[in-house]
Amino acid sequence: MNSPPVREEGLVVVRGGAGGFVQEITAGRHHLVADEPVSAGGTDRGPSPYDLLLGALGSCMSMTIALYARTKKWPLEAVVVRLRHSRIYAKDCTDCVVRDDTMLDRIERSSALRTADGRAGTEADGSGHKCPVHRTLKSQISIQEVAAS
């Protein structure tokens, strides 16, 4: 799985072998490893794909909240975003349009903010929902297959 690093901005390359779940991820000059937990047959060498997805969403939300605070000149010192992924039946979803036996993905999120003067709070203005990754996940996504290069 060793190959030259990918330097094209915006291109992510994922490589894995046929014998397990470990994946090597290259994003520009950054290298990550993804895997499944032992309980799912992996070796737990890295976060699971859903953990990486939640990390992408949480980091984007945290960055957006911090940017919003800087723009508003709020004395924000730290942002902590906690996320959890689960699958639920549509019929058990109180705020869903579809109510049948299909499964839906649910992401629960909470944000805690701390100001420079030590005050704690939560994100009441909804600025985290304005992050690009949140908007992407809430939109209709088209994933196109292209010829391998």
Report on this model:
Helices cover about 20% and strands about 30% of the residues. The protein is built from 2 helices and 6 strands; from the N terminus they run βββαβββα. The chain has helices at about 50-70, 130-140, and strands spanning about 10-15, 25, 30-35, 75-90, 105-115, 120.
Describe the main β-sheet briefly. Answer: 3 strands, antiparallel
The value of Rg in angstroms is: 19 Å
- Average pLDDT metric: 87
Shape: globular
How are strands sequenced across the largest beta sheet? Answer: 1-2-3
Can you tell me the residue ranges where pLDDT is under 50 for at least 5 consecutive residues? none
Number of strands: 6
Helical content stands at 10-25%
> Helices and strands, in N-to-C order?
EEEHEEEH
In percent, how much strand structure appears in the residues?
25-35%
Q: How far apart are the first and last residues' alpha carbons, in Å?
A: 16 Å
Number of helices: 2
Sheet/helix structural class: alpha+beta
